Here is the input.
Amino acid sequence: MPPFRSATLSSSGTPDPAALLLWYDRHRRALPWRAAAGVRPDPYRVWLSEIMLQQTTVATVGPYFDRFVARWPDVSALAAASLDEILQLWQGLGYYARARNLHACARAVVERHDGRFPDDPAELRALPGIGLYSAGAIAAIAFDRRTAAIDGNVERVVARLYAVHEPLPEAKPRLRALAAALVPEERAGDFAQALMDLGATVCTPRRPRCVLCPWRVCCAAAAAGIADAIPARSEKPDRPSRYGVAFWLTRGDGAVLLRRRPEKGLLGGMTEIPSTPWRNEPWTLNQAIEIAPAATEWAPLPGTVRHGFTHFRLELAIIAGNGEADGMWSQVDRLDEHALPTLMKKVARHAVSALAR
Ligand code: SF4
Here is the structure.
């Protein structure tokens, strides 16, 4: 990418959207869900990509997006799929509430909007799984509505442009207002994507490449040489730890016991290896056995499985036994056919390897 030479300042000295759009026309990223220049974006693809990209990187989402649109090419097809099918294709993307909301949203679009996504941000927000940012992004990108799509990337760019020293998250309302004021009358969708691209490729969290930036001549942080230090963040308290015990119950034919988690809540609707509730203090073996799915001889396996959720860290011990119980059973080598979240795949790998020793 050559250094950008035609950055401009508007008469007010604020960043000129036209300079960013010109840069975007030359340097836009080719993304699987992005329409070619001049082609009207498909709202279904825009929505699907925005939901998948929540808390997930572009590189991770790419293959999932391709698989989803190959299998369900439009919102009606997705609405007709079962939740199990969707969860299965979603495996590995994490934050499974998104997959459940994806399904609910597709159905709502078909039932309430005749299979067409609304173009109004407020109506979009009324759909399952579409929050403030996603509504703005979909309205702007899919429908060219003059609305801001403000995520962490955009907050960073704007905080630097105006050298906002106030830390995040306290600075969010101010950054939101500053970002909204930048959106131009024309090409709002391209502008939203241009800001995303600028934050992802030039105004990166560390070592921003200001020499390539179309806004460098009007960037207060670059002028002051403090871009790396902005935005500041308030100190986060450490995530608390929770503890549980997973029950690896096998029966005579080698199958292992599974169960489905409740629809609502963490990992809702996913298949799991049964476990105790996850609580703030570790379990003793006797406490766990009291609520085990079968009355049999249980033996603890060496080691534990650790997993990080957004709001807490989980440490699961595993105890193994043989017996019968009501529930779903699966051969160990066919566990991939179930919608097991990453945590439960770790538990299965750990149990299999501990028992093989
Ligand atoms: S000049 Fe540097 S710090 Fe300022 S917006 Fe551009 S890349 Fe970010």
In short: Residues 157, 160-161, 202-203, 208, 210, 213, 215-216, 219, 221-222, 227 surround iron/sulfur cluster (CB under 6 Å).
